[in-house]
Write a structure and sequence with these properties.
By secondary structure, the chain is an alpha/beta fold. Helix content is about 40%, strand content about 20%. It has a domain at about 35-185 and about 255-270: Vaccinia Virus protein VP39 (Rossmann fold, 3-Layer(aba) Sandwich), CATH 3.40.50.
Length: about 270
């Protein structure tokens, strides 16, 4: 059943190994930020551009939105389509620089961790601008580095953005900038340094799911054991909610450019001088 509470979202997540990315603490913290950001999206039409593993599409669908999941990768679309029972998204293979949608189609557009892979990111921004409704919201997320420069970025298949290159490449005449925030520093980075997933995997070795429906079916031992731990009642009902509360402290650093990841929020306006 669909709902708005993030805790209920956690509890109903798919319990198979192929959905491991949905159960991971870093992914869930990012989804929690998005959950808080979007507000009420029930019955709104939303584009998840560069949907990847489908986690954002899944969250938006759960919140009641009409979701279009677009990616150039067939594998990404396959993974998105098969996330969970009942999940319903409009799957479409497409190029971000040539979107197959009519102008003014979407109330909200997400393009998260995608633009850095697109050589002509400025054309992608123009396409996002075109398909967004006037007054609609656009949410971008890109990797940040103060050392990034346009000359260096233009020859890479994966780029970082500085404040200067963000303004030069991602800002558009009809996209009014609202705000930005950094999200991956410092608590998440600390856990990465401590390699806590290895600890969770060790704990997963000790867990033998009694319910066949949540027992890992395929994949390596590491992923199977990590999935087993993430599916324990201890993780879903106690440890993860507490950890997400702790992660909220990260937002104390949201205006400090020390993270590798930054969200940018825009509103589309027909009058560039407004």
């Amino acid at each position: 059943m669909k709902g708005k509470d993030f805790q209920s979202f956690i509890q109903q997540l798919p319990k198979n190994e192929s959905s491991l990315h949905l159960l991971d603490y870093a992914s869930l913290f990012r989804l929690k930020l998005i959950h808080n950001l979007v507000g009420d999206v029930k019955d709104k039409t939303i584009l998840d551009l560069g949907c990847g593993n489908g986690s954002i599409s899944y969250l938006l669908w759960y919140l009641g939105a009409n979701v279009y999941s677009v990616d150039i990768s067939k594998q990404a679309l396959f993974d998105t389509k098969n996330l969970g029972t009942g999940f319903d998204s409009n799957i479409c293979q497409g190029d971000a620089t040539m979107l197959p949608f009519k102008p003014e189609s979407f109330d909200l557009v997400f393009c998260v961790e995608t633009l850095e892979h697109i050589q002509d990111d400025q054309t992608a921004i123009k396409q996002i601008e075109k398909v967004s409704k006037s007054g609609g919201t656009i949410v971008l997320a890109v990797p940040y580095s103060s050392r990034a420069d346009a000359a260096q970025d233009s020859v890479k298949n994966y780029r970082y953005y500085s404040f200067k290159t963000m303004k030069n490449r991602l800002f558009s005449e009809h996209l009014r900038f609202q705000y930005m925030f950094f999200w991956y520093f410092p608590l998440l980075k600390l856990l990465e340094m401590l390699r806590v997933r290895v600890l969770f995997t060790v704990l997963g070795y000790l867990v033998e799911p009694k319910n066949e429906k949540i027992k890992p079916k395929t994949g390596g031992r590491f992923a199977s054991s990590l999935t087993a731990f993430y599916n324990t009642r201890f993780w879903r009902r106690l440890a993860m909610p507490v950890l997400l509360k702790v992660f909220d402290l990260n937002m104390l650093f949201k205006n400090l450019p020390y993270s590798d990841d930054v969200f940018l929020v825009f509103t589309k306006t027909e009058n560039p001088f407004c």
